[in-house]
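Consider the record:
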Amino acid sequence: MHKAVVGDIAGKKHSKIKFVVYSLSIVIAVGILELITRIQYSEAQFLYLPYYGLSENQQNLLIWQHQPGKNKVGTITTPYPFDIYDSKLGWKVKPNADVKHSKLGLWEVGVKTNSFGFRGNNPKERQKLSDVIRIGIMGASQTFGESVHDDEVYVSLLDNKLHQAEVLNFGVRGYGTDQMLLYYESEAKNYNLNFTILAFAFHHMPRNASSFTFYAKPYFITNENSLNLLGSPVPTEFELFDSDTPKLSMYFLNNSMILRLGLKYFRIISSRQVYNEKNAVWNTTKAIITRFSKTVKENNSQFILLNIEHKHENLEPALIKLANELDIDLINLGPTLRNALNAGISVQILNDNHWSAIGHQIVADALYVHLCRKQLILNC
């Protein structure tokens, strides 16, 4: 009996030692990983990692408030010289801009906008000539042409290919589908568009649920199948500077780069489920596209949904289903872009998600073929 008790005590002591050793091993391993991660990542990269205890909206505001400089409309990183504040939209493109735009070590391009604040030359006049077909393309940075020269943007390329047609670039870097809708309702509909194309991508959806992305913005919530607009008018820079700075807590978690990296990848994985039928973000996005389609039709324009997403193939059936429900035309460029990538074509710029000049050419060609095959545009 005595030996059994002694053995039991020795066993418990051994278990405790093993637990302490395992715990220390984990702490040391995490510490080594933390050290390696800090060597590989800069302090600036550490700043942009998500914080525990803050929503993405709060984090974006916090980063924005701590950026140097004054002209910070439309950005949480480097100020863009062609963004201006807009109380309805958050930001939009500055008219008559003529600037250099670059991403360090990746690309540098010239950006010119016309007197209406569109990239490119169109339109010459607000009023459309009777014998001209006018196409407006609503979108974000891919449509704006973030990483290419003015004449390399797919909107400009399509315009050059079409006879007796004008293609207008309503792309604004960083927009969500919600801002595109508001932009159409407040401005784009006044340009007598025969066709209104909505360029849609997966990453636009999280923006639709946000009040602060690159800058403060309006957003919709769904309420009994209706859309209610919040965050409008959008606060000015001065009002944002004077607003309360989000308070950080959970100091241990937020001072660890590896733990914040873990949070980043957790959010990335979670975001992939936003087009689930039961997801609120997807349902809000569907409601926005539904209203978009209805409003375009009310303005005697034909609505076309353009899928420019190639990474999230699972999104495509949901878009096809929505297009059928709304009885609208869908141009699905997902397979086209994937086929080009699989063939080794440099659709995207290296280390950048934006299209290269080749990528823009592929998109312009695909749009041209679709519009002509369906005889939406004559005399192709």
